[in-house]
Amino acid sequence: MYSTISCLPCTSSALKQCSRLFMDEFGWIEWIKKKAGKVPSGWVGIGDDAAVIPSGSARNWILSTDTIVEGIDFDRRVTPAQAGRKALAINLSDMAAMGAIPQAFLMTLGIPSSWKRDKKLKLFLKGLFNLAKEYRVVCVGGDMTSARQFFCGITVWGEPAGKKAILRSGAQPDDLILVTGALGGSIKQKHFSFTPRVREGQWLAQRGYPNAMMDVSDGLAQDLSHLLRASHVSAHLNLECVPLARHARNLTSALSDGEDFELLVTVSRNKIAKLLSEWKKSFPKTPLNLIGSVHRGSSGIQYYLNGKKQISFQPHKGFRHF
Amino acid sequence: MYSTISCLPCTSSALKQCSRLFMDEFGWIEWIKKKAGKVPSGWVGIGDDAAVIPSGSARNWILSTDTIVEGIDFDRRVTPAQAGRKALAINLSDMAAMGAIPQAFLMTLGIPSSWKRDKKLKLFLKGLFNLAKEYRVVCVGGDMTSARQFFCGITVWGEPAGKKAILRSGAQPDDLILVTGALGGSIKQKHFSFTPRVREGQWLAQRGYPNAMMDVSDGLAQDLSHLLRASHVSAHLNLECVPLARHARNLTSALSDGEDFELLVTVSRNKIAKLLSEWKKSFPKTPLNLIGSVHRGSSGIQYYLNGKKQISFQPHKGFRHF
After folding, report:
1. C-beta atoms of B153 and A108 within 8 A
2. Which of A87, A116, B36, B185 is the most exposed place for a label (fewest CB within 10 A)?
3. Are residues B152 and B278 located together in one domain of the fold?
4. CA of A146 to nearest chain B CA: how many angstroms apart?
5. CB distance A141–B73 less than 8 Å?
6. Each residue of B251-284: pLDDT tens digit?
7. How far apart are CA A121 and CA B37, in angstroms?
8. DSSP H or E segment with residue B90
């Protein structure tokens, strides 16, 4: 789904100037947001991992869409089945980030002639449907078209696992910040084999732990910035606590590689002890690490190393889609 | 949205044989349908203009998706604004076909570098959002990615205007068949400027007229075949009653050109007089023509000219997406 308005390194005026010359992804999202029309009261529109729409009943609907394109999101180094799995997995990760139970999806396929005559498309779809079966989501429709470059767009929807959808905008000053799993180096393998944190997201939402939640898809530094901006708060990030994945080259890699598909959560300080104890029993194999704290103000992320503020530390920007 | 299983000219065994060599659009849809998972009771999955999902409240949700690709669905002969308008209009037409009130949409954009640096994308989106404003549908999210060829996929949803969604599968023997507007030659201009029949679809659904309804997007002959197959019935089509659009070259063109985006409706015979009289008052400028009748059996369409059966008449196949 569209991310929030602009990443932190761009000040609003820099973004404005830049947009006159050549808008980047976030410039376009900002522009689209203005044109998109005002969403009715009670709806969540552009700017979170998914849209939230009241359904008339007690439960809301949560909808999200994500697309993968051959040559951009995957290439010949992965099997078609791995690519198909990823097409759905990234969408399930958005549902996880909302604390949602995914239910069904629509699928759009753009198919070049090279994909039609051999087994590629079947293998792609088998990878996709195997994951669908595992998560009990059904395909209820879609669209097929010819294209020069293969693409697969999925729109998935579900219901909140807890009382309501967990948004990016709910972080409160004095919350603590946690992240599941480990970060960085996903490009080596994990971004095709990751397990979307659907069960973890539901578990957290059902127990009312998260004040805010999102998935880490564009790198922790960039994604945390989005969450802070949506919540009008800032954060202290303790660099020594950031969990590095096996293939992460270094801390910068863990902060900015992207495609981790882990959950980034903020939780009230007084719930942390209970959460960590319960988590260990429910997910003994999945780490949940405290990495920082939420503070008032809009100064973005302040980096700390062993309690010492790192004024000049600046990770690379995270992944941008163009 | 995915259409139904196979067009009439393919017998089931011919399709099976053909699919071993090279599956066409309908072969793939059939294959995907098998893999898609069984939809829960009360849901409508693959095979109609849109999916229908119970929402827990009295009203169901109606969801549909359609994509346009540069070089396939539009080219340099149309303005980016016209293409953007079409991207949304084809989706609104699917909502019309279900008798739905469209509410909101998600939008995926695949953007080549040539679209980023100039005004094309802005013009495309302006065309799209102008139509969105006209029909009061809001964009609540989406996805942007780089691509070699521009594409725009939209997922739209809405609520039934009447008591329930109007399906393709509701046609009853002895129904009469009607079509709005005129058919054929849409490629000359209409497929970029057509008015999606949203108001007409809602009007019909609210008054409980249609037993079955769909939009004519792949040509009347092919689309009527889909409706008949979904309803397990056959039809007599009176060729002299088929309304030809100004740019239709001939009757074959009206039956098979595609992209008409008119409504194809079946209505109980005893409601026809009231319908035609009320329609004339509500839509004085939009023709609604009786073109045939529904019958028992699965023999597909039987063509008649001035009451005489045309045994050898066979229109060209309608449009196929690949």
Report:
1. yes
2. A116
3. no
4. 6
5. no
6. 999 999 888 999 999 999 999 999 999 999 999 9
7. 18
8. helix B80-97
